Amino acid sequence: MRSRLGLLVLILVACSAPGASTTTRASEPLVSTTAAAPVVAIFAPETKGAYPVVVMFHGGGWFGGSPISTAPLAEYLAGNGVVVFNSTYRTSTGGYPESFDDIACAIRDARAEASEYTTTVDEITVVGHSAGAHLGAVVSLSGETFGGDCASTEEIDRFVGLSGVYDPTLYTQLLATFFHTRFENDPEPWKAGNPYTYVDDNPDLEVLLLHGDDDQIVPMSSSELFAAALTSAGHNVTLEVIGSGDHQSTRQPDTAGPVIIDFLVGG
Prior knowledge:
By secondary structure, this protein is of the alpha/beta class. 27% of the residues lie in helices and 20% in strands.
């Protein structure tokens, strides 16, 4: 049975106007821990209402990154009537399956806490940027595979991938440390940590993929091929191409924010 991460929660209350100032306060950790507690920043509209819930995960090449990078997008979404749990996961100390377990636990905890900020807690949308999109896609599709006693029996309703990496076997040298083994020595962890393995699962998952056509870090074909595989498996998939967009464009509020809002409201 895995031990859960302690989560230090910061609640950021967004005013109704996009880009307005926020106020912050800190609560007690959700789970006490002797280790440093990763921070989950909750961005929420000023008053409780019928708001969609997003659990967001940053990028950073699997071994780094911070939710600070996705905070502006989280604030934008909250300013437009969305409750956002801007979450983190183990990076340099994680890997397979630890990082996936952290994603699953963060989603479960967000589901449990969402009723404090919204009257509609039945649907959860996972949003991930870059490596966070890879991790989020696996957990969104794979049901109770990850998370141990944190795993939820409720399926994820929507997934949004921002400049995502969806086939780890294209990065075998980089990710050998992440999977704790080389692909040719033991392909099983690589298979379990590959979203393509689960494209036939969670058939009701709605998917939005955003990618810049000038991404020099992760080629747009990553999202195109994943969209095609999901569509073939029967998923409702939307692929949005950001013209002249680079790898970071898809997490910018003015670029990604309106597209995500439309996806949430339209869904």
